[in-house]
């Protein structure tokens, strides 16, 4: 189960000591990835061994996704230079639910090209709780068509409770060519088992010290 787990340290109150505690946990337990704020990527990358299978990841446009595309591009460029091997981009739901709802695909395509040029992983985060099923289905297809490697169902900011049925719906709607990540904070052991049974590729958890 361990290679399925990703740890995330995106709290505004997280100290560098907390980040390094998460860093040690990821390497000690051979977790799949650690997601940290862009500010800390360069520092952690200095201590990140290339021999380790874990991925150093960061979040762009976190947590609301409504920054200009140019800002996301600049943030992505710096994160890649600093050593991030995965970029998680938050969908601009404000644009999605407006007359600009064609723009997210253009934004994703631009970012996918940039990220893949650096041979890094591109994940799109969609706050699934904001979407009805038809819109969620369309958003997932938009991310896949634009070149996402993974889609994730939440940032963790708006989802204090875990709903296994919503998580399984997200997995079911995820296009087959894209990996599925589920934010699994507060999930019970039986929920983890169900997610694995349904072939969810990654289970994302906050690091709690």
UniProtKB/TrEMBL annotation:
InterPro entries, alphabetized: Aldolase_TIM (IPR013785), DeoC (IPR011343), DeoC/FbaB/LacD_aldolase (IPR002915)
Gene Ontology BP, a term: carbohydrate catabolic process
One MF annotation (Gene Ontology) recorded for this entry: deoxyribose-phosphate aldolase activity
Keyword tags: Cytoplasm, Schiff base
GO cellular component: cytoplasm
UniProt name for this protein: Deoxyribose-phosphate aldolase/phospho-2-dehydro-3-deoxyheptonate aldolase
């Amino acid at each position: 189960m361990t290679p399925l787990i990703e740890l995330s340290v995106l709290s505004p109150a997280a100290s560098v000591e907390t980040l390094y505690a998460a860093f040690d946990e990821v390497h000690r337990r051979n977790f799949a990835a650690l997601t940290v704020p862009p500010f800390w990527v360069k520092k952690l990358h200095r201590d990140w061994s290339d021999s380790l299978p874990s991925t150093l990841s960061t979040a762009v446009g976190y947590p609301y996704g409504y920054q200009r595309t140019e800002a996301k591009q600049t943030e992505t460029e710096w994160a890649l230079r600093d050593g991030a091997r995965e970029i998680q981009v938050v969908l601009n739901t404000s644009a999605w639910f407006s007359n600009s709802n064609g723009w997210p695909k253009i934004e994703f395509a631009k970012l996918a090209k940039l990220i893949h040029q650096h041979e890094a992983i591109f994940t799109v985060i969609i706050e699934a709780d904001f979407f009805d099923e038809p819109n969620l289905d369309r958003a997932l297809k938009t991310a896949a068509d634009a070149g996402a490697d993974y889609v994730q169902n939440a940032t963790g900011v708006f989802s204090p409770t875990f709903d296994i049925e919503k998580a399984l719906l997200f997995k079911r709607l995820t296009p087959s060519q894209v990996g599925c990540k589920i934010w699994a904070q507060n999930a019970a052991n039986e929920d983890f088992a169900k997610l694995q049974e349904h072939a969810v590729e990654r289970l994302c958890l906050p690091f709690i010290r």
